[in-house]
Amino acid sequence: MSDLEILKAEIRKLSVKATKAKMDLHDLSEELPVNWTSIMAVAQKAHDAFAELEGKREDLKALEKA
User: Fold this and answer.
1) Domain count, the chain
2) CA distances from 47 to 24, 51, 59, 66 (A)
3) How far is CA 32 from the centre of its chain?
4) For a FRET experiment, which of 3, 33, 37, 64 has its CA 20 to 30 Å from that of 55?
5) pTM
């Protein structure tokens, strides 16, 4: 498997992870004020997931240009 294929597979997995984190944040928002103390943890998880996904997408763009 090439580096490009490996990176694309990683991006697919990270996309699923980010989507799940987004839905967790959305679900939490609908339940407020229940579990309001977990807002920061759930939001941080979503932020980290999307930051990692964006980083890998940038890596992919760089690899495709090379």
Assistant:
1) 1
2) 12, 6, 18, 29
3) 23
4) 37
5) 0.90
